[in-house]
Amino acid sequence: MFSKHITTAAYIDSAGVYDNVGISIKPTATPTYSYFYIKSRLKTPIIMDIDGNVRWDAGITQDSMSTIFQGDKFLTGNVKGINIDSLSLYGKKSSISINGTNMGSDAYFHHNIDSGKQGILIELDGTTDGALKIESFLSEIDGNGKVIKEWDLGKIFSEYMLQEGDDPSNFVRDGVDWFHMNAATYDPADDTLVISSRENFVVKLDYATGKLIWLLGDESKHWYSYPSLQKLALSLSSGQTPIGQHAVSMTKDGKLMLFNNGRRSFNNPAGTPAGIDLATSQTAIFAIDNQNKTAQVTWSFDDGIYSDICSSIYEDRLATQGDLLINYAAADNRSRAIIQGINKDKQKLFEFTYPSTKPCYTSWNATQIPLDNIHFQ
User: Fold this and answer.
1) Can you say how many angstroms the Cα of residue 21 is from the centroid of all Cα atoms in its chain?
2) By percentage, how much of the chain surpasses pLDDT 70?
3) Residue 45: HSE in the Cβ half-sphere, 13 Å Cα cutoff
4) Given a cut of 80, is residue 12 above it in pLDDT?
């Protein structure tokens, strides 16, 4: 474990290399994790330690937005195609083709890859049944790229709203980024999926059937004008509803954690409400009662930073009381990325700051990586 943290400035050269210049500061506590990896739009993921040192860098120019680390390798979805690039920590590369998807040959990856029930959850854009699906289609695949199950959120919402007597035509709009899925997570407590729709809400649905269970989001947005969707809305007893959120995950004790960006909708239909903007972004943990459809914020952190898009918060899941990693990907009018380690007592354990020449390019998302038990030969 490391004995210090660094508040650092950094620059990225033309090859996308992270170069840190910092001042050592004695920490108030030591994080439960030692390493994390950064996903960027510039290059394959890089691994850093909590002192701000780059520990692993393949040096390959490649968009690594859609990436997950499994075993000893990074799996990165192709943002221009329907295959996954595998890159081991030894530098060995291979490719995995997605097979069995309802998406057409024009499909490509966007946003996150997350852990699923049996495999990994991938987010694809593309054409299915003659309709262009933009950021509203989720698949789970196994290690060989074979599709286990898929969920067309446009179809799920349309069928539900029609059954409830609502016309979904001005909500679900094929060919338009009406949903903007940016993360999904599996909840083993009740065999469900929790999915982030940045444009609207966080939605929970049954893994097996796709049945909608609840919605949690800004009720001043367009979605809340539909009685059928109002019926699914959780009642929030404390804290701030998610607005433009990212990085949904389940904590070890079964609560919902997310980065609450605080940015109104970008793509709501003309003449409909886009919702509110927050002055600063928050990170939050929600306790949710599925049966009574209630929610409350049990923990939140606001450092006075506004990061309206991208960004993340994740828990160290290997420790009994795991510390947190926050990535403000679009701070200071989208000109900087700020990465912080904090604990549940809201002590700041380290902080690194990087310039970003384009929004989310330097670090759109960052998460802990368990290297302690990996042995190199």
Assistant:
1) 28
2) 91
3) 28
4) no
